[in-house]
Design a protein that fits this description.
Length: 346
């Protein structure tokens, strides 16, 4: 039995990971740390709160004293760091908190790992650290040796964290791994991100804001496949290594939006083209050869099935996202897309 600290477990991927791990490895104990920012939602963890092998602690990964105290108490075997500010648009509005949480938080977690026995550390990173690829070169993919070349304050903060993780490996010998995954989709995805936003707006017959011409390409992976990859890396990966995670499922944003409209039986007249994101990355595409060859990982959920499952989840769990939309998040949404932003519509 291992004790695993999972940070950011009240968020989208961390929450899915908690559910995945408790199901796949019921013998392990999970201690989830989350600051419960606007993106953290305890209802995501409601069904595991009474599990004797699960503990939730409301804590900021930048709170050094609190983190060290928790390590002293829990004596973890493994730390998996999901906690982050994760939304590119927000990072463009206000970079500071991204640097604080994503870089300083990572340093704090790794310092605690060093202090309490050189604990195994996994950093959940992103394909965005590689920047973007041109739309007219479908032969190009991100490999683990593609140079770091970031575009947004978000991706720069994630890249800064990755560099720090590798520095802790080389300088202090901390046993680390990094996974760099492509865009995830699935249950518990916060409705500020493309897929859940489009599902929620479709269901509410609200405009579907597509940036620019909708031609930017993302490489979508069902969230459970990402969780499985992280689990494999933590168990069988080589320390000091980076693993790219992605399922060769590239799609233009506009095609995703049209697919969701079709699945929900709505009309394409809901599509509203809005001003493009500043510095908008054109195309992401992961080459997952390394994780496949070394760890035998392959994605299990095809996009056609995954998107149907996801839409069904949002239909079956309306209260989860309606509560978010009715609260604080609505203020952000109005600022980004509301009447005050009228002049920004194309
Ligand atoms: P999310 O925004 O849904 O969740 C982030 C969670 O971290 C929230 O619960 C939030 O409360 C918590 N958090 C934020 N700041 C914190 C702090 N200072 N201390 C403790 N907790 C804090 O994000 P997500 O989409 O689940 O992403 C999780 C991780 O995966 C991030 O590191 C992100 O960079 C990475 N990632 C995301 C994707 C994707 O498509 N969503 C793809 C690749 C990598
Ligand atoms: O690639 C991994 C990354 O994927 C993660 O590291 C990030 O944490 C995660 O948020 C995600 O970043 P993206 O910027 O790709 O995701 P987002 O859902 O914000 O946008 C996906 C695409 O859709 C992007 O090209 C911008 C576009 N978009 C997004 C929104 C929110 C729209 O056209 N309209 C929108 O309203």
């Amino acid at each position: 039995m291992s004790t695993i600290i999972v940070t950011g477990g009240a968020g989208f991927i961390g929450g899915n990971f908690v559910h995945y791990h408790l199901k796949e490895h019921p013998e392990d104990r999970i201690v989830c740390i989350d600051k419960l920012t606007y993106a953290g939602n305890l209802s995501t963890l409601a069904s595991v709160m009474n599990n004797p092998n699960f503990r939730f602690v409301k804590l900021d990964i930048c709170d050094r004293e609190g983190i060290f105290k928790l390590f002293e108490e829990e004596k973890p075997d493994v730390v998996i760091n999901f906690a982050a500010e994760s939304h590119v648009d927000r990072s463009i509005e206000d970079p500071g908190i991204f640097l604080q949480t994503n870089i300083m938080g990572t340093a704090t977690m790794m310092d605690a790992c060093r202090e309490y026995g050189n604990i195994r550390y996994h950093q959940v990173s992103t394909d965005e650290v590689y920047g973007d690829l041109p739309l007219d070169r479908p032969d190009l993919f991100f490999t683990e040796t593609t140079p770091i070349h970031t575009s947004s304050p978000y991706s720069s903060s994630k890249a800064g964290a990755d560099l720090l993780v590798m520095a802790y490996f080389r300088t202090y010998g901390l046993p680390v791994t990094i996974s760099r995954c492509s865009n995830n989709y699935g249950p518990y995805h916060f409705p500020e991100k493309l897929i859940p936003l489009m599902i929620a707006n479709c269901l509410n017959d609200k405009p579907l804001p597509v940036y620019g011409e909708g031609k930017n390409v993302r490489d979508w992976l069902y969230v459970e496949d990402h969780c499985k990859a992280i689990d494999l890396i933590v168990r069988n990966g080589s320390v000091g290594e980076v693993y790219n995670v992605g399922g060769h499922n590239e799609m233009a944003n506009i095609d995703i939006v049209k697919l969701i409209i079709k699945e929900l039986g709505k009309d394409e007249s809901l599509i509203t083209y809005v001003t493009d994101r500043k510095g908008h990355d054109l195309r992401y595409a992961i080459d997952p050869t390394k994780i496949h060859n070394e760890l035998g990982w392959l994605p299990e959920t095809k996009f056609a099935d995954g998107i149907k499952k996801t839409i069904k989840w949002y239909l079956d769990n309306r209260s989860w996202w309606e509560e978010i939309i009715s609260g604080e998040y609505q203020k952000y949404y109005d600022k980004m897309y509301g009447d005050s932003n009228n002049g920004d519509y194309l």
